[in-house]
Structure formats: C-alpha cells, structure tokens
Amino acid sequence: MSTPCPSVLLVALSSAEEQAQCRALRVRDEQSDFIASNSESLEQAADSPWCEPLAVRALHSGEMVGFLMHALDPDENSRWIYRLMIDHQHQGRGYGRAALRALLAYLQQLPGGPGVALGVAPENIGARRLYAGEGFVETGEVIDGELIMRRMLV
Predict the structure, then answer these.
(1) Of residues 38, 36, 34, the one with CA closest to residue 25
(2) I need a labelling partner for 53 at 20 to 30 A (CA). Which of 46, 71, 106, 136 fits?
(3) Rounded CA gap, 114 and 139, in Å?
(4) DSSP label at residue 3
(5) Distances (CA, A) of 122 to 108, 125, 140, 145
C-alpha cells in the first residue's frame, strides 16, 4: 500500500527573506551534479521574464521544503519544468511527487500548449522514476547531456 503524498503549496518568492530561505535549501551531496543551485536558478529567473520560480511549502507547517521553476517556451508553445528540488532534510517523504502534481495542475490553468517537458540527468534514476510515474515519457532527445521527458497536461 502506498503512502499518500503530503500536501504542498506553490508560492511565489516575493521577498528577499524568502529568496534567502530558498538559497539555503540543498540537495544531498551525491545529487549536487544533477541540478543547478537555487542561487543560480534565481539569477536565471531574474534575467528571464518567462521563468517563474516558486517555493514548495509544506501545507501543514508552511515550511519551505523545496523549490521549482517553470517557463513557457514560445517557440514550442509548451511548458518546461526547469527545476524541481526538495531539500535533503525533506527528501523521501513524498514532497517531490506532491510538488510535481501541484505544478502540473497549476500549469493546466496557464496559457500555452497542452504539453510539458523537462530534462533530467541520465544518472538521476530517482528523478527519472518519479517523472515516469507521473506520466512523463523519455523522448530519445538529449539536450546539454540531459534526457528529455514529455507528457500532456490534459
């Protein structure tokens, strides 16, 4: 029997304090090669108006447990998930799956095509398993060394 996902809120990072909390989140050391740091991601978002960075907060406590960022690719008219990370202290509790599900529900409400894509390091077996479990399919495309996975939003 599977454990239900915890409930999460996706919240805009609207203050310097929230951004500092986000920058302090870390993945496990062995995962650090799989994802850009949150500092780098926030810098990218500041330079890219099409990116939307969001904090992942545990609904029961309000604590920031992770970070994600998505964007609309105007050339493809599809959404991309650029980042999804859960702090090392909160991994293994279902927050990643809950955040992904919350983001997919959110993206369905936004303009753009019905597809969503993401890139994942080939060695990141846990992430590939998570995404496949939520309907993402590896396309055979590789961009900057990452496997591309896609799924429909509807």
Answers:
(1) 38
(2) 136
(3) 16
(4) P
(5) 27, 7, 11, 8
pLDDT, tens digit, 9 for 90 and up, residues 79-115: 999 999 999 999 889 999 999 999 999 999 988 778 9
The structural domains of the chain, with segments of one domain joined by +, span 8-152
- Which amino acid type is present at position 135? G
pLDDT tens column, 24-46:
988 777 787 788 888 898 898 99
DSSP summary character for residue 100: H
Kind of pairing between the strands at 115-120 and 78-86: parallel
Position 4 scores a pLDDT of 61
Which residues on adjacent β-strands are paired with residue 68?
54, 84
> Residue 132's CB: how many other CB atoms inside 10 A?
14
The CATH T-level fold of domain 8-152 is: Aminopeptidase (3.40.630)
Phi, psi of 18 (to 5 degrees): -65, -40
Phi, psi angles (nearest 5°) of residue 8: -130, 160
CA–CA distance, 66 with 45 (Å, rounded to integer): 16
pTM of the model: 0.90
Spatial distance between the Cα atoms of 121 and 97, rounded to a whole number of angstroms: 18
Token pair recorded at residue 54 = 């969001």
